[in-house]
Specification:
44% of the residues lie in helices and 14% in strands. By secondary structure, it is an alpha/beta fold. It has one domain: TIM Barrel, CATH 3.20.20. Strands 7-6-5-4-3-2-1-8 form an 8-stranded parallel sheet. Helix 3 links the parallel strand 3 and strand 4. Helix 1 runs parallel beside helix 12 and helix 5 packs across helix 7. The two termini are 17 Å apart.
Length: 250
């Protein structure tokens, strides 16, 4: 039985005071969870302040990106071991905004995934198609291609520590959401590909999240799908009440 993972990607929002207020509200409310995991991924500048507040709570800490080297002359970058030292247990890799605005490729994301695992971090590897690709019937082929490239060279054992986030790019921040049936179809295709890359038992153990305008009023139907194991939440994770409702999906 896969344990759902509900993750909040704060993107480039909130300073220390706002971030502290949000995690205090979350950790105070989410004290009774026994069948699901919760994660927040704030900007780098908040990690050091939030880590001690989340220690011992039901809410884990993650980062939004990282470099694949552990040290070196990479101005402006953050190493995986630095994130681990701060208390991070997860890191988001290959978000569509990283791919679109910063030119990240499957090959780069693959290097980061290997580095994350080598440093004890669980990578959340994002895949997803843009609207033109969906409209032309290429959604599955695009997602499978990204999956193969981003996960190349990972063993079955390593894959069991990877989370996949399917985020249709056309649904991120737009208010549009894939129908539960459409999302399920892509999630099922992802799981089939994971089985081809490893084995069925490994594929059945991997968490596959849905991301793309997840909100309190659509989370229940999305989470009812057999291959949707969680959510990577953007805007709705910035409001305590909304994110708590998403975490407490029925």
């Amino acid at each position: 039985m896969r344990r759902p993972l509900l993750a909040g990607n704060w993107k480039m929002h909130y300073g220390v005071s706002e971030g502290v207020a949000l995690v205090e509200a979350l950790s105070a409310d989410l004290t009774d969870l026994t069948d699901r995991d919760v994660l927040v991924c704030p900007p780098f500048t908040l990690l050091g302040s939030l880590a001690p507040l989340l220690d011992g709570t039901a809410v884990a800490l993650g980062a939004q990106n990282m470099h694949y080297e552990t040290k070196g002359a990479f101005t402006g970058e953050i190493a995986p071991n630095m994130l681990k030292e701060l208390g991070c247990s997860y890191v988001i890799l290959g978000h569509s905004e990283r791919r679109q605005y910063f030119g990240e490729t499957d090959e780069l994301i693959n290097r980061k995934a290997h580095a994350a695992l080598a440093n004890g971090l669980k990578p959340i590897v994002c895949v997803g198609e843009v609207k033109a690709e969906r409209d032309s019937g290429q959604a599955e082929s695009v997602v499978v291609g990204q999956l193969r490239g981003s996960l190349a060279g990972l063993s079955a054992e390593q894959l069991r520590s990877v989370v996949i986030a399917y985020e249709p790019v056309w649904a991120i921040g737009t208010g549009d959401t894939a129908t539960p049936a459409d999302a399920q179809a892509i999630h099922a295709r992802i799981r089939a590909e994971l089985a081809a890359l490893s084995d069925q038992a490994t594929a059945d153990a991997i968490i596959i999240q849905y991301g793309g305008s997840v909100k309190p009023d659509n989370v229940d139907e999305l989470m009812a799908q057999p291959d949707i194991d969680g959510a990577l939440v953007g805007g709705a994770s910035l409001k305590a009440a909304d994110f708590i409702r998403i975490v407490r999906f029925k």
